[in-house]
């Protein structure tokens, strides 16, 4: 592998092979300034010959006239289109006996402003050459140069300090002789070599092994140096150790591939500023390409306030200007994607895909087609919202009838049967289960409200669920509350959330579908319902559920569970409840799942797979950051809301039948009223329930619960999911459309 232990931050480097200068015998050569050789550079010095000649000296110089060789900013070197060249050999007419002298030809651009001092022939060249190697020697980045056959030719002091080797131990060795770290993925070296041997740069995360045997993670960039004839002459490599301040130090195979983008982004602005400053002072007569790059850098830094996506697009635009055509075209496609509004939601395929999936997506993830004129939908079952005065006096938790109490004995188990509780409570499971779960989590103590107030609140909320709905009724709310409480009991979730988050999650689960009409958002938008008009066809039901819950709660002090909490705490709690209820809207399904995976699961996997639980602070920072706590709560309630396929098989079948019946009823009404049929496959005469369940699991459930299981550790749920999927698959293979196989 060529120079894989270090990183190079230059632009593309071009190598010009050294040769005897045609003017080596010119009289001008006698005017060159002589300097002692620099042993610290590690460069060989020619022994004296019969005729004393100066040794060949490798220097770095700017390929294009508008660029300086390097910028020494904050003790960091940035090489800009540097190239290797052999200095011309010349005789020293003044000191023929001196053998350790070096003649350095002019390496600055021809248009570099020359002062009278620099115009003294030879001095400017020598000073520039010394400055370049001083920068290399003083650079805090480890720099390594190898030959085309990967023999080490130069390492700088920073490399020695970081890796623990002395220069003499490495120069002349083949790179394969240097010990390698076992932490890299097996095919990484092959990937690097296949890239750089084609003359392409490689950048990424690489573990190098220090002399003492320790592994060190580095951000590495390797640049092939192309010589005459297009042949690779050298490899230049520079590295930055990532150290402890980079929390991806224990990154996995995924992070090795992904982290280079993050590192480049985090450092892009500083590096580009340095490049821009140099150009402004040294490239007065630059060519068109330089002017375009200058313009690009100016665009990047011109905005004092800009969104992150604007920064990304500006950086890509700048990169396009110096990229080959295939890369530029690929970046055009990237920009197209970035300019779309839904970056986290997958694009649907063609119409010949599974119609069940298409209908589910259309019915659950779209806000509906444009309304047809004259179609006004008023809920047939619409009634005034229930208030406390219409309700019977609630019971105390200690006064719950024995039969109901016995049914709730195992409410902390995932296999708890909510349907049995529904029957035992005469379709009032939410009040009873809510009283027990809220008591277990100390909600009354947190809210500083009497138990009677909580009981009244649960009862009035349940009264505003529609028992006439086959699916979206208070039994579904109780089921989601149960799942929420179960998830809150998982260790990883407890590490992430605060008590206020737990209370918000339980309340949000309780109210998340209150006053649901048994119709989808798409239906309400197509029908021109009052709610759709009120909420502008956007998250219609979810907005209604959240708003009505607070209206009901604050309307009467007897059921106002928020009455006694401090104002700021109430605002925080209210915001969390609303955010969780809105997260149940399916149009944002993939956005929530993908953000959860990228912001939480991947960083945790990177920390755990390579470091176990030793880095507790790093794990804690991922789990408890305010942004990630929001993502955890959203994911929690989403999984609780559509967890039916992960329930025991009998419960899964029961819920599948209920949701299918509700969709059948919607299709019937759409046909009656002449509305667009949102989900045509849910026609009670032709629908295959097994196919619809398979599509729902494939499209919405599997990936989401894989991610949630990776976070919360839910093997029992995943086993149920696998069993249920096989059950539906078996029915479908037998061409059965019903919930259960026919009796034998």
From TrEMBL:
Region (Disordered): 16-46, 88-111, 243-299
Binding locations of Zn(2+) 2: 513
Entry annotation: catalytic residues: 472
GO molecular function, one term: metal ion binding
Pathway, per record: Purine metabolism; 3',5'-cyclic AMP degradation; AMP from 3',5'-cyclic AMP: step 1/1
Entry annotated with the keyword Nuclease: no
EC number: 3.1.4.-
Start-end of Low complexity biased regions: 279-289
Ranges annotated as biased composition (Polar residues): 26-39, 95-104
Residues covered by the PAS domain: 128-199
Domain of life: Eukaryota
Signal peptide from the UniProt entry: none
Listed Basic and acidic residues bias regions: 16-25, 244-256
Residues that hold Zn(2+) 1 according to the record: 476, 512-513, 641
GO BP field: cAMP catabolic process; cellular response to epidermal growth factor stimulus; positive regulation of ERK1 and ERK2 cascade; regulation of DNA-templated transcription; signal transduction
SMART domains cross-referenced by the UniProt entry: HDc, PAS
Binding residues for AMP: 472-476, 513, 641, 693
Domain PDEase: 396-735
Presence of the UniProt keyword Hydrolase in the record: yes
Cofactors named for this entry: a divalent metal cation
Note on how the cofactor is bound: Binds 2 divalent metal cations per subunit. Site 1 may preferentially bind zinc ions, while site 2 has a preference for magnesium and/or manganese ions.
SUPFAM superfamilies the record matches: HD-domain/PDEase-like (SSF109604), PYP-like sensor domain (PAS domain) (SSF55785)
Family statement drawn from the similarity comment of this UniProt entry: Belongs to the cyclic nucleotide phosphodiesterase family. PDE8 subfamily.
Stated role: Hydrolyzes the second messenger cAMP, which is a key regulator of many important physiological processes. May be involved in maintaining basal levels of the cyclic nucleotide and/or in the cAMP regulation of germ cell development. Binding to RAF1 reduces RAF1 'Ser-259' inhibitory-phosphorylation and stimulates RAF1-dependent EGF-activated ERK-signaling. Protects against cell death induced by hydrogen peroxide and staurosporine.
Subunit structure: Interacts with RAF1. The interaction promotes RAF1 activity.
Record-given protein name: Phosphodiesterase
Native organism: Cottoperca gobio (Frogmouth)
Lineage, uppermost ranks: Eukaryota, Metazoa, Chordata, Craniata, Vertebrata
Gene: pde8a
């Amino acid at each position: 592998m060529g120079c894989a232990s270090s990183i190079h931050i230059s632009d593309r480097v071009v190598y010009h092979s050294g040769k005897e200068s045609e003017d080596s015998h010119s009289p001008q050569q006698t005017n060159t300034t002589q300097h002692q050789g620099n042993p610290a550079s590690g460069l060989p010095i020619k022994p004296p010959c019969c005729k004393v000649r100066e040794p060949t000296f490798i220097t770095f110089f700017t390929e294009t006239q508008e660029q300086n060789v390097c910028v020494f900013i904050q003790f960091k070197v940035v090489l800009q289109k540097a190239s290797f060249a052999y200095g011309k050999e010349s005789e020293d007419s003044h000191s023929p006996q001196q053998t350790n002298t070096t003649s350095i030809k002019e390496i600055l651009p021809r248009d570099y402003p020359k002062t009278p001092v620099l115009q003294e022939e030879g001095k400017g060249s020598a000073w520039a050459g010394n400055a370049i190697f001083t920068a290399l020697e003083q650079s805090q980045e480890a720099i390594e140069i190898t030959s085309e056959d990967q023999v080490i030719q130069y390492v700088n002091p920073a490399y020695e300090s970081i890796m623990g080797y002395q220069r003499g131990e490495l120069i002349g060795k083949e790179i394969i002789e240097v010990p390698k770290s076992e932490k890299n993925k097996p095919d990484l070296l092959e990937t690097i070599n296949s890239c750089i041997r084609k003359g392409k740069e490689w950048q990424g995360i690489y573990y190098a092994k220090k002399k003492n045997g320790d592994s060190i993670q580095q951000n590495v960039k390797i640049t092939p140096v192309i010589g005459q004839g297009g042949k690779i002459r050298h490899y230049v490599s520079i590295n930055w150790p990532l150290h402890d301040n980079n929390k991806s130090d224990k990154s996995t195979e995924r992070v090795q591939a992904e982290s280079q983008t993050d590192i480049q982004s985090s450092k892009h602005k500083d590096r580009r500023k340095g490049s821009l400053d140099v150009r402004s002072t040294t490239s007065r007569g630059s060519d068109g390409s330089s002017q375009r790059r200058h313009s690009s850098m100016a665009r990047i830094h011109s905005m004092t306030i800009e969104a992150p996506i604007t920064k990304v697009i500006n950086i890509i635009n700048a990169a396009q200007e110096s990229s080959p055509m295939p890369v530029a075209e690929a970046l055009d496609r990237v920009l197209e994607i970035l300019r779309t509004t839904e970056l986290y939601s997958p694009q649907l395929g063609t119409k010949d895909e599974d119609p069940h999936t298409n209908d589910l997506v259309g019915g659950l993830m779209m806000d509906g087609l444009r309304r047809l004129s004259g179609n006004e939908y008023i809920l047939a079952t619409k009634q005034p919202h229930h208030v406390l005065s219409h309700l019977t006096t609630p019971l105390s938790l200690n006064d719950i009838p024995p039969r109901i109490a016995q049914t709730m004995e195992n409410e902390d188990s995932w296999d708890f049967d909510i349907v049995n509780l529904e029957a035992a409570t005469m379709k009032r499971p939410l009040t009873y289960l809510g009283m027990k779960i809220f008591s277990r989590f100390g909600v009354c103590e947190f809210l500083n409200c009497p138990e009677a107030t909580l009981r009244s609140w649960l009862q009035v909320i349940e009264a505003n669920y529609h028992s006439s709905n086959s699916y979206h009724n208070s039994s579904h709310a109780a089921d989601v509350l149960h799942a929420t409480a179960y998830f809150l009991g998982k260790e990883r979730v407890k590490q992430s959330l605060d008590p206020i988050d737990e209370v918000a999650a339980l309340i949000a689960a309780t109210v998340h579908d209150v006053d649901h009409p048994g119709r989808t958002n798409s239906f309400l938008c197509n029908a021109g319902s009052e709610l759709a008009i009120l909420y502008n066809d956007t998250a219609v039901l979810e907005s209604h559920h959240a708003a009505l819950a607070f209206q009901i709660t604050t309307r009467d002090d007897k059921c106002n569970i928020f009455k006694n909490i401090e104002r700021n705490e109430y605002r925080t709690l209210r915001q969390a409840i609303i955010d969780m209820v809105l997260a149940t809207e399916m149009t944002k399904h993939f956005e929530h799942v993908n953000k959860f995976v990228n912001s939480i699961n991947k960083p945790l996997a990177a920390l755990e797979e390579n470091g176990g639980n030793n880095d507790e602070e790093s794990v804690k920072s991922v789990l408890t950051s305010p942004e990630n706590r929001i993502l955890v709560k959203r994911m929690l309630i989403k999984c609780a809301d559509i967890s039916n396929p992960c329930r025991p098989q009998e419960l899964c079948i029961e819920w599948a039948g209920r949701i299918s019946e509700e969709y059948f009823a919607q299709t019937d009404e759409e046909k009656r009223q002449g509305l667009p049929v949102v989900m045509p496959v849910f026609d009670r005469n032709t629908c295959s329930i097994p196919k619809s369940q398979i599509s729902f699991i494939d499209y919405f459930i599997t990936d989401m619960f894989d991610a949630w299981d990776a976070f919360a550790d839910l093997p029992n749920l995943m086993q149920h999911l696998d069993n249920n999927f096989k059950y539906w698959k078996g029915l479908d293979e037998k061409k059965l459309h019903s919930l259960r196989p026919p009796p034998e």
